[in-house]
Here is the input.
Amino acid sequence: MRIPSRFLRPVVQAVCLASMAYLFWNLQYPVSMPVSTLPLSVDPLAAGAGLIYGMRSWMPLLALMPVAVFLAVALLSGRVFCGWICPVGFLTDLAGKLRKSKNRERFGYLQFGILAAVLISFLFAPAVLSFLDPLVIFQRSAYHVWAGAGVPIVLLIIVAASLVAPRLWCRSICPLGGLSGILSLASPFPRRVSERCNHCMKCRRACTMGAISQDNSWDATACTKCLECEKACPQQAISFAPARPEKPVVSVSRRSFIACAASLGLLAISKGAASAMTPEKSLVRPPGSLVEERFNAACVRCGSCARACTGHVIAPARLDAGFDRLFTPALDFSAGACQRCGTCGQVCPTGTIISIPEDQIRIGTAELDTGLCISWQENKKCGICNEVCPASAIKGAGRLRPEVRADLCVGCGSCQFNCPVEGKAIRVAARGEKRRT
Amino acid sequence: MGRRVFLKAAGTAAILAAAGTAGCMAGKTGTVPAPVAPSGTPSQAVVAGTSKLVVASDQDPVKVVDRALDAYGGLSGIVKSGDKIVIKANYSFARTEDRAAANHPLVLSRLAGRCEEAGATEVTVIDHTIDSGPLCLDRSGIKAALGSAAVCINSASDFEERSVPGVKLKSALIARKLRDADVFINAPVIKSHGSTMVTASMKNLMGLVWDRGAFHSNDLDRCIVDIAGLLKPDLIVADAYRVLKTGGPAGQGEIILPHEVIVGNDPVAVDAYAAGLIGLSPGQVDHIRLAHESGLGEIDPEKAGLTRV
Here is the structure.
């Protein structure tokens, strides 16, 4: 029985991409757990960050189920995730079709070097996933497109790399692919070549991952089981029938070490440079956030919380917050107010934000500028800050001049959002915020 | 070979199943049917001497609505068979039911039920909420009681510019749904209010306005009266089953339980009675006094023919 259709894989990939885009779009109150968060909860790297920075508020075992499925699939059938499911992989496949590059090098040393570097730096700052984890990159790109909040640069670079060589990023950089690749070594579905093979090497040319070398040997850590080689073989000599996996020959190359060291160095330098360039400006963070330093280290900048926010108040930080904090979630009270619903904490894949009880939420403190307030300046009977305050933190109603009771204020920003004065007479600052350590 | 095919089929099935699940979930977002046949003509203003005011009291939030409407003479003269009804309720804040910041869900659902019994084909309960719409509907218990009949009009496209024959207000962005309805019922919940002392039927109309910040930076009381001069409900059914006596409109504050529903056609009379529940004399409340002076209604509930049942 031959392969059904050459369209099978692209169709599956397209369905997966559409499903993930749909799940992103569907990420809104009330969030249907655990389905809505699946795109990131299957990710073992993001889950690792969750383990370090605070488990989900719901059952930890259940939270790790999707990861277990991901790992089991990789152990059983290798990098099928890369070849059939990954939305970034699909886009690189499409771009790769635009230009026929002859490059078939594997770049395994680079991939494993980078994986090692990611795992090491991960212990200090999972934020490294923000530009290296394909699922995080896809989620953030979806946010970019949905919110019209800019160009998904990282995704575009990855896709453009496919023009240089097909799936260049997937075979040389992607740490999630590298991780699956290592697990692939245990897969009982190796590529086998029968004696019908006449060494025409059409399989090598068909393989976009560089998994088949010039001497027709096969690299289990690269193969995505896309089955293009099987289809390309005129002799029908290739099969992926079950077999005992070969004992892997682990030879850690010097090049891998160099790649790892170089990536670590690069990460450290860029981190140092980014921190040095970060301005002092304090950002107001969602409720249940980690303290600033740990926040910036743990947040993978996926944009999930900003998408899910019921108050439309969470917006990714822009460059003016510093490169180090670019795209981390901050509260923008000109766009909305925090409803203290806890949805952001529910959808955060790393535990940077968690849902905490409403009565423990303290995001910041409102400050009234009496010089701008129309009740103070023009004796206007406005009182909207008092009206919308959920914490009864505004003293003075009716014709009386409002004052903030800092001891009661939770910093939700309802007052700032609803203040009719241009430039806002009442504003929330991070002062008095409560964060997790 | 067989196993390979099996694995591929199984993988594909799993992915399609996942996509299918996702697809099924797409169906859950309900759409509001597009209303047609705008009538747009506001019913006539209350003419002196025609004010009707009924106050019913009952421990049961369903029965109290029935008693009030029955004593008023039923809905037969107001709702005709085939009518589209819009009920402006108040669930502007995402507070739990026990905080009395929104209408009692059963009062509201009974009112909607009575409209349907009177022959209405479509009853829509609306509010332009201050807090997040889905949260307001969930926490107030109104979604549980009314389902998809209760909606939030929280997008600028839900509003249209209309000119206002007011003193301060010359134009405002008003809910489109109002123009599309045959009958407009104003169903406020009675609460104390930080800025206007009491919120009842006239203050409730602000939830039909998009740019209400302009009210606050202008002259709040005058703007409320101006909008009350434009938006005249066919019936007012004010919910005083629970009343947030202090700390309104958002709470937290003292909650009293008059277990009353006020039905009337005169917004000033209804609001004057409501002010009394908070412990205020209507003349103390600027927007009620201004409305009375502008000829919008009778400020003395007794003169408005107050009937208690």
Notes: The beta strands of chain A are 192-193, 238-239, 314-316, 329-331, 365-368, 394-395, 403-404, 426-429. Residues 279 and 322 of chain A are 6 Å apart (CA to CA). The first strand of chain A starts at residue 192 and ends at 193. Chain A touches chain B through 51 residues (CB under 8 Å).
